[in-house]
Amino acid sequence: MWPRVARAVIGIALGVVAACSASGGRPAAVDAGEASFTRLRHEMVTRQIAERGVRAPAVLQAMRDVPRHRFVNPGDEGDAYEDHPLGIGLGQTISQPYVVAAMTEALEPRAGGRVLEIGTGSGYQAAVLARLCRAVYTIEIVPELAERAARAFRALGIGNVHVRAGDGYRGWPEAAPFDGIMITAATPRIPQPLVDQLAERGRLVAPVDEGSQQTLYVYRKVKGKLERDELFPVRFVPMTGQVRERQR
């Protein structure tokens, strides 16, 4: 009896090895799951993003490439490509895919550029930006989220994102100037240190808390001062830390 059982076990093992070999060392079920997520991601870009007016080819491609399901909480992967934000714990969210794409397009990141992000959150927005520029510097005020995002970047082999845990109010002066700055939490105003760290003719995209509503703006630095254009109403979690203390 034992030889027959042994042969069966060996046969199963060889079948698993063969399946893994055919799929680059991963079980076939893993590849099938990833193929399904890829299909959902392409549908997301077509139906939720391109049809709403995001046109930049590089941005659309980045949204197709970055696996959003790798940045959501365990158990939420099936909802990763739906048209809404998702909670990621600790009072924070991963933004709606369209908003991520629209903010990225408004920032106009370029291949050789450097971008500062205030509010890492899940890390998804930084991962999208990393596909479009040379380096991303991202600051997260919640240490647990900063570490979680850093782990996601390492797991995906994203090497051009630098993560710091701390208050984003003062930016990242030793890495400045930045070609673009993105704030991913609603702020009552643009902190002056971020204005100072934005390169001349650079762009800054931020949701501004205006009391009864929040509005997304794109700013351009011209002769040391910011000029802004309104984009659309949004709803973000509030930016916390020093920006709120100085408002009192």
Describe how the helices and strands are arranged.
Elements (H helix, E strand, L loop, with lengths): L1 H21 L5 H22 L7 H9 L20 E4 L2 E3 L2 H11 L6 E5 L5 H7 L4 E6 L2 H14 L4 E5 L12 E6 L8 H6 E12 L4 E9 L2 E10 L7 H4 L3
Parallel strand pairs: 3-4, 3-6, 4-5, 6-7
Antiparallel strand pairs: 1-2, 7-8, 8-9
Structural account:
With 248 residues, the chain is of the alpha/beta class. The chain has a single domain, classed as Rossmann fold (3-Layer(aba) Sandwich). The N and C termini lie far apart (80 Å).
Spatial separation of the terminal alpha carbons: 80 Å
- Quaternary state, please? single chain
The share of residues in extended strands comes to: 15-25%
- Tally of alpha and pi helices: 8
Strand order of the largest sheet: 5-4-3-6-7-8-9
How many separate domains make up the residues?
Answer: 1
Q: What's the helical proportion of residues?
A: 25-40%
The count of strands amounts to 9
Rg from C-alpha positions?
A: 21 Å
Classification by helices and strands: alpha/beta
The third-level CATH topology is Rossmann fold
Supply the CATH superfamily name: Vaccinia Virus protein VP39
Element pattern in H and E: HHHEEHEHEHEEHEEEH
Briefly say what this structure is.
By secondary structure, this protein is of the alpha/beta class. The chain has helices at residues 2-22, 28-49, 57-65, 97-107, 124-130, 143-156, 192-197, 242-245, and strands spanning 86-89, 92-94, 114-118, 135-140, 161-165, 178-183, 198-209, 214-222, 225-234.
